[in-house]
Amino acid sequence: MSTHQAVHVQSAGAALKPAEVETTSPARDQVRIQVAACGVCGTDRAFVGGGFPGMSWPLTPGHEIAGTIVELGAGVGNFAVGDRVAVGWFGGNCAVCVPCRKGDFIHCANMQVPSWHYPGGYAESVTVPSNALARIPDALSLTEAAPMGCAGVTTFHALRESRATPGDRVAILGIGGLGHLGVQFARAMGFEAIAIARGARKAEDARELGAHHYIDSNAEDVGDALRRLGGADVVLGTAASSPAMAQTIGGLAPRGELITIGVTAEPLPISPMQLITSGLSIIGHPSGTARDIEDTMNFAVQSGVRARTQELPLDRAAEAYADMEQGRARYRMVLTM
Fold first, then answer.
1. pLDDT tens digit string along 82-118?
2. Per the omega criterion (within 30 degrees of 0), is the bond before 26 cis?
């Protein structure tokens, strides 16, 4: 049995440490990927902290995986050894539960998430269900592709599923790992893009990313600022802060919507009266399927949208994770193998 290098977390809240693990050959309908790059996502904090039910230890984090297929399990006929593929938060679906039978694969009752339901991508090798695979366009490098499996698809798919149409005002709350992609996608989709962040230091970055307007939430009331611009048809809430999301409600245009993708357990401090009088909506958006990841990457190629990344080798995973956790990353840490 061969082995490969990976990163283990031995228990909830423990340090990230290198480990040598057995390389698992793929079972039926699975493939083994030689990992080239894996993004470090903010949600990795919840995995390392033991924040999801039914987790097992030791855990290998990582759900923004890009690499090359090196081994096929029985029954896999639509992919070949050598194919470049990505795997994101959507790590496979069962195809037999009620949501799957309705075609709603992202809400599969038995959905598999890398690092939660099987070892993740902070590793040289990962074995995954074949229905989790997204083909990477030739024009994207593996490092560019990795963040598209979660940060990219979550922002792109949320915007294309929103009520906004070209020319509408779309605000991106938070200019970080998710938000810096959201601003780029909003501009590329033809929206009037409004970036919202704390402090003046993000203003120049926001305009470089394509924002038409910048709102400093430390310097002015966000709702008032949005209303002065005419009101936002959509706010994409990428900042993991319920109070910050709530502050945008007063700046939504009639029938506007707040789409929440910044993960936090804090209750939203919003009253029904705020929603009723203007017919507003609040929507939770959960990433996207393998096909949605392919659409995201293809649109990124067409439009020039790219994640801004900082690369570190796998043996410095603890450092990359700390940079993400403590806000030093600019904007997406990617581990390379």
1. 999 999 999 999 999 999 999 999 999 999 999 999 9
2. no
First and final C-alpha spacing in the chain: 21
Beta partners for residue 6, in sequence order = 19, 123
Query: In 10 A of CB 285, how many CB atoms?
Result: 18
Looking only at Cα atoms, what is the longest distance across the chain? 65
Residue 1 pLDDT exceeds 80: no
The answer to whether 238 and 179 have CB atoms below 8 angstroms apart is yes
**Cα 178 from Cα 38, distance rounded (Å):** 15
For residue 249 the two structure tokens come to 């409600």
pLDDT band at 6 (very low <50, low <70, confident <90, very high): very high
Tokens of 84: 């470049």
pLDDT of residue 303: 98
Q: For the chain, what is the HEC assignment?
A: CCEEEEEEECCCCCCEEEEEEECCCCCCCEEEEEEEEEEECCCHHHHHCCCCCCCCCCECCCCCEEEEEEEECCCCCCCCCCCEEEECCCCCCCCCCHHHHCCCHHHCCCCCCECCCECCCCECEEEEEHHHCEECCCCCCHHHHHHHHCHHHHHHHHHHCCCCCCCCEEEEECCCCCHHHHHHHHHHCCCEEEEEECCHHHHHHHHHHCCCEEEECCCCCHHHHHHHCCCEEEEEECCCCHHHHHCCHHHEEEEEEEEECCCCCCCCCCCHHHHHHHCCEEEECCCCCHHHHHHHHHHHHHHCCCCCEEEEEHHHHHHHHHHHHCCCCCCEEEEEC
Q: Would residue 196 be called left, alpha or beta, if left means φ above 0 and alpha means ψ between -120 and 50 degrees?
A: beta
